[in-house]
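Instructor's aside before we start: the two examples that follow are unrelated to each other. I chose them only because their records fit on one page, so don't look for a connection. First example below.
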Amino acid sequence: MRRTSLLLVVFALNFGLVFVKWVVASPEEDVTACELVTHPTAHLNKVVFVTGKMLFSRFSDTVLAGCPLKDSPPLVVLDPGYEATPHVDFLEEPGTLEAIQPFLLTVRSKGKSPTIASACGKFSGQMFYQKDFHSGAPGTGQANGFGPTKIYRFAFVLKSVLQIASCR
């Protein structure tokens, strides 16, 4: 499903006349996380709506997976505005952190909580990938990817959470 938004543009002339024109804004694309990693160049420099599974871990990074992990690598989920995050022209929308917080709290609480939580949903953001990627052992500084340990070839900078629920 493609979303197309109409923008109302009002033009004012020197004579006090106002022209009203409807224009079509550039559509954001609906894709799966699997499509992002299997066709990365098709989605670069675009805000996309992604349907997939977000995995939260107590011991590693939050990732977005759409294909079986053995078939394709995950995308590390990053917040906009941090030094280690690729530059985007948006901020995280209000309510985004609150939407994912229950899953973060599940894996980070002490006691007998699970070490991994999963949430299925629809997210918006922008995808990045490292074309000439090489991974190194975590902490060696040899990797040139994304995330705190730079071990991910693909990154997804999160803009908003449109839907989210525990995966069944």
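Example two begins here.
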Amino acid sequence: MHPGTLMGGKAGSGRGMSHNVSILLLVLLVVVVVLLVVGTLTGFAGLLVKSPMIAVRAGVYNASSSTAVIAVSNIGSDPVSIGPSQGAAIARITFRVTSPANTSEPVEVAPFVTNMSWTPGTTVFIYQDANGFWVTDSMRSRLENTTSGPVSPFTHGIWAVSIIDGKTGFLIVRFPVTIP
């Protein structure tokens, strides 16, 4: 076979690529593979975003004899913040609730939250009042704060709570909570 031929074809017949182009493409392929491996392992120093891992247990918390709120316990997670981020190393999360009537509402951070970081072993509470849905780290603080009005009871039925990555907007976990 003559150098520069492909599968026995004539040299210069246009049926193949030059030796230099094939080497260049091979080098380019190796560089792309190396970049993908390095990017997967290191996250390209923040260019590839990794959502936090979160394990939760949820249930109903009786804030009063007539008002139940949703309690979400962190039973294991990466460091997360329910409010403005606590630094680049701590991911921010947001919450959404979906009613039994399939209406989805955002859950805002209550103005009197004392601890923005949500760590394993701690619980946050989702409640509603006349101004919307809120998340707090202390139901006692909310119940003592009467300037926001009374806490409203959730409609009876199955609610869905979604935890969303605050940076990417991706859903991390969604789980049902039955309000009796």
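The beta strands are 54-62, 68-77, 80-81, 91-98, 104-109, 117-118, 123-129, 132-136, 157-165, 171-179.
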